Amino acid sequence: MADLIAAAATPRIPVRNAAGGALGDFPVRRIYCVGRNFADHAREMGAAAPASKQDRGSPVLFCKPADAIVIDGKVPYPPGTRELHHEVELVVALGRDAPAGVLAPAAAMALVFGYGIGLDLTRRDLQAAAKAKGLPWDTGKGFDHSAPVSALLPADDIGDVTRLDLSLQVNGETRQLGQLSDLIWDVGEILHELSKLYALRAGDLIFMGTPAGVGPLQVGDRYLARLGDLLEYEGTIQPSRGT
Q1: Which of 51, 91, 122, 128 fits a 20 to 30 Å CA distance from 153?
Q2: What does the pLDDT look like over 29-77, one tens digit per residue?
Q3: Cβ neighbours of residue 158 closer than 8 Å, sequence gap 6 or more
Q4: Which one-letter DSSP state was computed for residue 20?
Q5: How far is residue 178's CA from residue 87's CA, in Å, rounded to a whole number?
Q6: Furthest-apart CA pair in the chain: how many Å?
C-alpha cells in the first residue's frame, strides 16, 4: 500500500576524523538529555548538589525530538519565550543497539560510536513557570531547533573524554567552562540508567549536562562551543521564524 504522505527525512550529523576528513553521516534516532549533571549548575538552578556518589539518587532525564538538531549553527529565536538560554554539553553518539536488559556501566561504553559538542537550548521562562506549578517542562526543552550540535568525532579519535573540558563563548566572552571529569554521572553510568527505562539503539544521542554559567541569548548573538582542542562549533541566533 502506498504511503499517504511523504516521510520526513532522518536527521543526520556529519562525522569526521581528527584530521578533519569526512567519514560520512550519523542518522539520529532519539535525543536523550541529562539535567543537573554538574554540581555547580545544580546549585545555580537552586537544587542541592550531592556530597558523594552515594547521595546522587537518580539522574534527571528528559528528551528532545530528533529533528530539533541544528547542523549549520543558525538558530532562529524560538516563539513563546523571552528567555532563551544556552547550555553547552558533551554529546554522546551510540553506534550499536544495546542488548536486552539493564547495561552494566563498563559494558555500556561499547555502545559509544563517538562524541560531539552541542547546546541544550532552553526556554527558561516556560521551564520556570512549569516548575512553579509542579508541571512537566517539555515546552521549555523540546522545541524546534533546540539541539544545535557539532560534527561527531569517533570515540577512538578522542580517547578518554573525561580529560577534556567544554566551554562556550558568546560574542567573544566566555560564559561557561567545565571539566568533564566533574560530571556527577559519567557516560557509562548514564547509559546504565537510561537502559533501565529505554531500549537504547544505534543512532541515539545523549546530551550529558551543562556546567554553571547558563544565561540568555539574543538575536544577533554569536556563540562558539569547544570540546577541548578537538572540536569547535559556532553559530548565530537568527530572527524568529514565527510559529
Answers
A1: 122
A2: 999 999 999 877 767 766 677 766 778 889 999 999 999 999 999 999 9
A3: 114, 115, 164, 230
A4: S
A5: 11
A6: 58
